[in-house]
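Below is one such protein, fold included:
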Amino acid sequence: MEVVNTLGRRKTAIARIYLSEGEGKITINKRDYKEFFPTATLHYVVEQPLMLTDNMGKYDIKVNLDGGGVTGQAEALRLAISRALVKIDPEYRPILKENGLMRRDPRMVERKKPGQPKARKKFQFSKR
């Protein structure tokens, strides 16, 4: 099997992955993913596509993560892994799609507007 290369995005985080056959190592920016992501919730998010398709321990994943915060990075990585698994075997697509892992979450931070302290908040109105 050749190396499968895919991309995942969430908010401002970008995950570029290289998936190849191996013993299940996930390396993010030359560090183990359990060291990179501190909480069990984020570990679950990263492992979710592999668990749903029964591929835990079958593939080595090398990841370049850039931008965003830890949650955005974990969800970007989840999308990239899902896309790579579908490239390997299109049979996985219905399972992943049913669990909402094949969709890029489009929600981004709204920009701050001039004359306002935040995106939607307004300065206190004074009649006089």
